[in-house]
Amino acid sequence: MSEIKTQNVHIDSHEEHHDDHAHHETFISKYIFTTDHKMIGKQFLMTGIFWALIGGALSLIFRIQLGFPEADISWMRPMLGEWITPEGRLDPEFYLALVTMHGTIMVFFVLTAGLSGTFSNFLIPLQIGARDMASGFMNMLSYWFFFASSVVMFSSLFIETGPAAGGWVVYPPLSALEQAIPGSGLGMTMWLVAMALFIVSTLLGGINYITTVINLRTEGMSFSRLPLTIWAFFITAVIGLLSFPVLFAAALLLIFDRSFGTAFYLSDIYIGGEALPQQGGSPVLYQHLFWFLGHPEVYIVIMPAFGITSEVISTNARKPIFGYRAMVGSLLGIAFLSFIVWAHHMFVSGMDPFLGSVFMLLTLVIAVPSAVKVFNYLTTLWKGNIVFTPGMLFSIGLVSLFISGGLTGIFLGNSAIDIQLHDTYFVVAHFHLVMGSAAFFGMMAGVYHWFPKMFGRMINAKLGYVHFWLTFAGVYLVFFPMHYIGIAGFPRRYYTWSSFETFSNIFQDLNAFVTIAAIITFAAQFIFLFNFFYSIYRGRRAPQNPWHSNTLEWTTPIEPGHGNWPGAIPTVYRWPYDYSKPGAADDYIPQTVPYSETPESNTDFENELAALEKESGVEEVDETKE
Amino acid sequence: MATTATIKSPSKSTWSGGQAPMKASYGKLMMWFFLLSDAFTFSALLITYGVIRYSYPQYNPEIHGEVFKFSTEYWPIPDYVFDGVPFLHGMHLPLIFVSIMTFILILSSVTMVLAVEAGHRRDRKDVEKWMLWTIVGGLTFLGCQAWEWSHFITGKEEGLKGVADATKFFGANLVQNQYGPQGFADLFFFITGFHGTHVFSGVVLNFIVFYNVVVGTYDKRGHYEMVEKVGLYWHFVDLVWVFVFTFFYLI
Ligand code: HEM
Ligand SMILES: [Cu+2]
Question: Which residues form a coiled coil (chain B) (predicted)?
């Protein structure tokens, strides 16, 4: 099986309808307007990496402002122009634009499109045994809508009034009134257009993922045999399908308030002593609509990372995942609960405190399924023959970060404590650990683990270790001190604090420390970048199944063509976690091995299944051309 | 593993893979999931309606006077806003016109069902006929809505007294209206407009499908599933109208 030539893979044209492209591929149909899910996944990955660099760079600029408010940064003027004041300081308005764009980019463009887009596209057909997504064309559209959205969002960085500046949540009235800040002008309009395009992209992608998982699973791949990656992508897509349209509605209403004089979110506003005509709207309504997406969105970000981690940890601990059903159940539980906790972001918005306590209760309940996941990761690792690949390290890192950040969520979920902590750096610390860093680690785990499948070459592990340890230490050094700053009352989204005696004396050193740690962590990512691009061209050739993994993608040729399997699609006989099964010859049994071939390791029940396999007649079809 | 075996699956249970478990093609599933997500968009809009609507008091004869009149103080009673019918100028015919509109839209759903049914029989002439009726129904609904909007925009004789300058304002736009609070007209335009856009795109889709039926595309393809898919969309748009109608006209 080791030597299968993949060029000009011929695919039975009766199997699927979209295979006839495989024969006459041009550069454009292969790399640009491609309908191959693997290439689309890589497009999402590359665009995601691009955005991660932009988002990271923006954060360094405002970190410098926070850590070294007196520093002269005129050297940035060639790049930022007028945004650096004549005195060599950062323009305060631009500071707000920076945090807004950093948040938007990281949450949506990197950790939603870059993560779900990459791995759902790449892995769903490969792991369920399908030739491609249900609709390759819609999949292509999904990428190009994302691309269009990226272009609009990116251009907004360069316009004269600057990009949107109302925070990534763009609350009205700030975001609704052009007079409010420069960022609420054209920049805000472009933000809304970009997000509308982004939502279309997400829906096109999500509908495709869901139908593909339902309809295109190969023979034998029942839901209870799905790898947890697929479960996670599937449920993530469902959450997105139900929450993004609400953001869409909220954004449309905001567009009308901004441009057509309606009053959905506006009421009783005076500017310079003049009353605005809008009457009767409700800004809190916007917050409800936004967080109805916003909270599920944080799970849209973390769940694919969970799925990847489950897969990577089980493979590299050489043990079945602990509590497969509990893992699926907790994903479903989290998904359900994520729709009924949104108002914990609004405890201090003037919402009815009784409603607040209802949301507090529901919020704290989420800790239960979250803890189930964490314990199952730990018990999977327990007494495993752990292989510390870079992917494995990043997965373990995810578990660590998720615990650290999840615990502070429980503080914040208490509506009384949140009065003190809301909009401080404590919240920033919470979500950067639990969501930002954890999901980023999940994404890295996925890249390291599936790199051989994506590019047919191995990524250098030594550099991977350096990258991991620098990043792991880095994110803790960046985000842990923020808890202290936050508890002491240091607010988020403030350009300057040095005019407050208390703050300047107490926090100068911690803030400077965080900034230095952030610069080092960011720099460490270039190790990854080098490793990534170098290995694409120069990496060691990958073996077919480098991690001795059970899932279907490793049964494809090393560099699968359009259609994934040159011959028939393999049939699945067992779940994906038969690692170190007692009695078995190897410490892994791929999903394609029938029970009838493994009598030595079968349980009684599995022997019965094996008998059934026999009855229906196993025809050994040798199409593997050894 | 060295060999890949292909076997006839031992258990032919529905969800065990290798087949479409819901007996629906991927295209039809996609339509269902799209509609599910669209339902959430409309729900968000209708909740917005509810929130703004109930931030205003109801009209109460004891406080606001025995005879109902329009005021920005409270939400108007729909019977007094939507009481016009074309050619019957000046008569108070509450909700008659909108009921006719609704009836037409529901009828077009019935003709759509008939088109889908004819599609199952692969009876091209019948599909053509019923698709055409559905398109006519959709266009009539849109026409009625256009009249309804223009009537709403031009306004009624009595007008609404401006607060500051005692001038009278007639009709409605997004900033001001004679019927009540600003939100009333804003929501009316936005939500019925958003629904109307859906109807319009439905008519366009129906027309494309109708065209394909006429030129025989689906006969060549061997099935009329496309008719079913636009049928799902069309029924959804009708169903949403029932909710919009209930919110704006009945409560
Ligand atoms: C034990 C589970 C969790 C609880 C109880 C919890 C609770 C909270 C609460 C109450 C807030 C609002 C704080 C405030 O603004 O005052 C918050 C903010 C946030 N949480 Fe969590 N959280 C949990 C887990 C998570 C997870 C798993 C993620 C993401 C994967 C996440 C992402 C966020 C984000 C992004 C914010 C800040 C949004 C913003 O204001 O910009 N949280 N969390
Ligand atoms: Cu939340």
Answer: none
- The structure tokens listed for A581 are 């099964």
Contact at 8 Å (CB) between A466 and A441? no
Nearest Cα to B202, choosing from B22, B24, B34, B25? B34
Q: Using a CB–CB cutoff of 8 Å, tell me whether A623 touches chain B.
A: yes
Closest CA to B203 of B125, B149, B106, B133: B133
Chain B residues 85-104 within an 8 A CB cutoff of chain A: none
**pLDDT category, A27, cuts 50, 70, 90?**
confident
What number is the ipTM of this complex?
A: 0.91
Ligand 1 pocket, residue A304 CB under 6 Å: no
CA of B76 to the centre of ligand 2 (A): 37
Residues B184 and B81: their CA atoms lie apart, in Å, by: 11
Listed in order, the ranges of chain A carrying CATH 1.20.210.10 are 33-265+279-538
Q: What is the mean pLDDT of chain B?
A: 87
Six token digits for residue A586:
């190897």
**Ligand located closest to A287 CA:** 1
Nearest protein CA to atom 7 of ligand 1, as residue:
A409
Q: Coil, strand or helix: which one is A457?
A: strand
Taken as a whole, chain B contains a residue count of 251
Q: Which of A403, A426, A413 lies closest to A481, judged by CA?
A: A426
Q: How far is the CA of A184 from the centre of ligand 2 (A)?
A: 25
Contact between A111 and A436 under an 8 Å Cβ cutoff? The reply is yes
Instruction: List the single range of A477-481, B39-43, B58-62, B101-105 with lowest mean pLDDT.
Output: B58-62
Verify cis geometry, omega within 30 degrees of 0, for the bond prior to A92.
no
Distance from residue A409's CA to the centre of ligand 1 (Å): 6
| Residue ranges in A318-352 assigned as alpha helix (H) | 324-337
Q: Is the Cβ pair B30, A615 closer than 8 Å?
A: no
CB within 8 Å of chain B, chain A residues 154-213:
203, 206-208, 210-212
Domain B23-250 has CATH 1.20.120.80: yes
pLDDT over 60 (residue A111):
yes
Higher pLDDT: B1 or A242? It is A242
Does the CB of A367 have a partner CB in chain B at under 8 Å? no
- Count other C-beta atoms under 10 Å from residue A509's C-beta: 11
In chain B, the residue whose alpha carbon lies closest to the alpha carbon of A15 is B18
Mutate to test the interface with B, among A571, A592, A606 (most CBs of B within 10 A): A571
Which fold is adopted by the domain A33-265+279-538? Cytochrome C Oxidase; Chain A (1.20.210)
**Alpha-carbon distance B147 to nearest alpha carbon in chain A (angstroms):** 22
pLDDT in tens, B189-228: 999 999 999 999 999 999 999 999 999 999 999 889 999 9
Nearest chain B alpha carbon to A594:
B5
Which residue has better confidence, B81 or A545? A545
Which residue's CA is the nearest one to ligand 1's atom 40? A345
